[in-house]
Protein 1
Amino acid sequence: MTDQEYYEMLLPESRRAIDFDLEDKINFVLSGKFIPYRTADGILQTMEALLKEPRKSRMPCLVVYGDSNNGKTSIIDEFVDRHPPTDGLESDPLPVIDVEAPGGPDTSALYNNILDKILIPYKKSHTLSQKEHLIKYHCANLGTRMLIIDEIHNSLAGTPAKRAFFMNSVKGLGNQLRLNIVVFGVSTALLATSTDEQIQSRFRPIKLPKWLLDEEYANLLASLELTLPFKKHPGISTNAELATKIYDISGGVLGYVVEIVNKCAVNALEKGRERVGLDDLREIQFISPSERRAIEQI
């Protein structure tokens, strides 16, 4: 890719950021952005298809699982951004609700999170059934069709009986409101959605795998480059040695790949360099996930 081709392919906001002062350029690089790639696009397409399905008593659900920091939350944020709240005149006011699972299989705390998200007041003295009634009443009025729960693996921090009750409560919301339930978590999320055969059969699993050192990884780096405010091609995806070292340090985990690329880009901008190189990777002194684990065990 030539420098001119790179410039023409830059995201519009990245092209505008080229003219920012250094501090604003750095803030732009470090700001959160959704990076499209095949697996994420596939999950988003699957979620879109679920949202369009006719409402029925047994709505299909998903469990998306993968290593920590491997892009799950960015997928949630992108999907929610695509389905924002509306005034309700031409479409449902709140088609999608996203919440984080509480620190354990605490159904009351989950209900609190949902009510907080939709800005419905409740009393601490409210019973579980009263909170459930509020959720059902208001979500029905808001036209909610999908409930997304992140960090579902948190529900494993409890007894089998509490975990089963928690997941049955989630399933009950889906049944009665005819919602698609999509849960995200680390690999143990599969255990959270396996409390019984009914729950397990309801939640279709989709894995977010670690990246391989292949063409798709090179395409990921090329996509990341288009988010950077450089006048010339940064040279990350075309530098085989640099790309390999980033992969090795990141352990193939998406969040670390993005973090390393962004920190290298910031370092290059601060040094007045027109491209990102091995010097930037050395200078940021990034501690790899394996090194972090080793330090934690000391």
Note: The radius of gyration is 22 Å.
Protein 2
Amino acid sequence: MTLEPLLNASPAIQLHVATVVPAAVIGGLMLMMRKGTYLHRMAGRLWIGLMVLTALSSFFIHEIRLFGDFSPIHMFSLVVLVSAVEVVRSARRRNFVRHKRLVKSLYFGGIGIAGLFTLLPGRIMHEMAFTTALAEPAQAAAPVAAQAATGAPVWVWPLLVALVALGVSRLREREMPVWRLLLLPAILSTVSVLGIIARDLSGAELGASLAGAVAGLLAGGWSMRGVAVVRLARNRIRVKGEAVSLVAILGIFSSHFAAGTLAATAPRILEMQGVAELFALLPVFFATLMTARALAQAGYNPLGSTRGRLTRQAEC
């Protein structure tokens, strides 16, 4: 690992890193500390300010030029800015349930998922993290991230926009038929299974995929074990807003995109111990996590008492 690529980077990139790193640390501490205290409020104000600066500085970074000077990654910056406004608004309106949900979504999506894209080959964080480990000079890392973005099929980017829209739509409370609730998780799980069947996976990768499926099912069921289910007439259901779906959707897309980019531009990284297994595990984990949570929301959760707490309401 070396700091030389960052020290030689543009001021916009240096500002971006200087704000996102403390935002990641402060945000993590803020999520763990007691809520409502003076320290929590001060940390929240500092964190939201850092997140806004991080998002704004990204518009002056143009390593990947797909739409003029911008790329699909800048869409995350727009989501961060909109989410930041909603975080402040929900806190001032004392809607703390929505506030907590938005903060978690902004932290794990805006820092966690978006951060994965910074590790693509050719980007500065990749050079910092992997140049020494792979014994390659920094200048050897050509702008392959830009090549990967421009070389990706055109349909990839509308798909990303649609997936983000689906994830954002799940942030609010809504009513829907049970089949619609289960449709997206079923599609994602089916695609994951078909991907395992179609690919020539090694024994270790297959084991990682199975481990991801089991871990996703357990994590999804356990996280929903105390959730009450509200059933309506005509086989409809009322679902509370949640950010896990958005994080899971972006996690599936990011892991597939990163694995494809590495396979095309830096296959040596995939040959490192545990890397291929990680990319085999992640999409399956996120897909089964969503499936287990959707089943629990519909009232089928073997790890909890959800089935015994169904509340029936008649539609007006």
Note: The CA atoms of residues 13 and 61 lie 6 Å apart.
Protein 3
Amino acid sequence: MTIYAEIAGADPAGASEAVCARVPGMDFDLVDLRVNVAGRDVWPEGHHLPEEWFRRRLNDYDLWLIWQGSGFFQKNGAPPVPLHRGVRLFLQPGEPCRAWQSEGGQLGVIWIHFDIVHRTKGVRLAPDRLPVFFFDATRTEFFENLANRMVHLWRELPFLDARLRDAGQRLLGLMLRTLLEGYEFDLACAETDDVAGVDRHHRQMVAQALEEFHARYQEIRSISAVAAALGYSPDHFCRIFTDVTGRTPRRALMAIRIDRAKHLLRHSDLSVGAVAEAVGYGSIFPFSKRFKEEVGCSPSAFRVAPPCVGND
């Protein structure tokens, strides 16, 4: 897991600096969370968001959850941070930011615009009471499922009567609170020197391995080679990786390949064989077998199935 926090006033000029540190969390019993709009997008090839877009459009708080693809996000001129599945970004109004995707790595983003208002004072929280800017999690399914449900609920609100709309807005606030509290819980776990017998150095190694998997999933042929590049024996690497993430390196790499394959099957004209090759399989047969085991249907069936099938 990787954490970046923005510490305002870190230097005499008042500039922000990206550092690995903790920002005090919010007291959720003292705030109201108001969802303004929520959506889910797949960026088209070559799409990017310049600073001007953020200056004009980011008028409230924004939570991003990356569910596919790869790219980079830069804030306040700090070094860019990598974007891939599992990354969560917490953005504040008016921040100078820009975002772009890697070549061939179409980003999938769930975004939730909202306000955090002090329950009694009726004002937005001060910056030093907000979550950290960037968090790279190894556990993604719960947050993705909850965020997707929020998007669906938001889209349903206009078709509900006034009473149900009010109830829906309250439910959205509770769901957002769950997302943010989960965010804070994961941060606390990531900062503990010894969680379930795994120290911070090992967690950083696993974060590096995951970045390597996301960047080179098409060409990685040996988990042992990845372990060696990180300075570990294969057995030691696999044991630490499994302790941190709950799954083996091989299964983590396979999940990345299957996620990318699902995207290509739905959003490209590539044949199933070409998709298999594009995500790192040497032939169509092992790819099709693995895909069916993981998704529950063949690649060809997935391509023509309704979008809800396979959680695409």
Note: The first helix runs from residue 51 to 57.
Protein 4
Amino acid sequence: MKNDFTALNATFETMPMALGGGNPAEPEFRLASFKGALRFWWRVLRWKDVEKAKEKIKELHKLESEIFGSSDPKFGQSKVRLRLLKPVDSDTKNIRDYFDQNSGGLYLGYGIDAAKPKRKLLGEFSFQVEIRLSPLLSPEQKRQVEEAIRLMGTLGGLGSSSRKGFGSLNLIKLEGGTASLQILENLMKFHDSSALPDWTAWSEGTRVFSFERKGDWKNLVNSWGTFLKTEIGEMKKEDRCKMGSPRKSGNCSERRGSPIFFHVSKIEKGMRGRIAFFPSLFLPGKPKQSTDGYFWKPVDELIDSARENFNAKEIGNE
């Protein structure tokens, strides 16, 4: 067996990001956070591999540990190693330097604005990271990691409110890779299961939209926030929890991330927004959560409204 690692060199551009380090008040880009996000997006793509397993979560953890390592000695250290190729250089700002009181952007970044001590944002910046894949990984495992990198750089982000357009990661270039650049179009073709995943994962119910707008990151996030604030305000109170909890207006206290991801990236003539909806079990292990039709119907309706409002194209269903 060769001892050579496979090296992937990835270049990303980011949107303003609330990512903390040892001092919560001072923003800091950390590779540990990047790797955590990479693992998250790898899990997003693995529902199809474990949905028929008797113990789905246990099987997922086994597959993940075989690639990214575990404290369990039978898996050992991670077979994916990261190295930042040059230091990150970025200015810092307060969220209110971007958004006014009662703006859509401040609505989306409420958790950042309300944090104590006050949190700052890293401004837009680019970075390069080397991802080294162990020769102990199979060709399929390497393909899975590369696929996760591409999806993370298409829909993902880092830091607080990363599902709301903050900290979006845009993959500019991936050297040494082999997977198709058309990651979203390819994913839309592969799944034929109607079962809801046990976690945030790609399934038959996943919907992704893309639209373009003039302006900058601030304009796009403001527009999305204003839209969401209006739409959620018109929802029945019992349905608002489905947009993420805890939420006072929905009387829901258990923590559950939003099923909608909003991603922002630069294009030649403005900005691109992507909206992704990942329906899954709302609170796995809890009693049945829907007694009247499709549980996620109110969110699907919100997504349809967003498509019309932003003139967005549904990927895989143009």
Note: The longest helix spans residues 139-155.
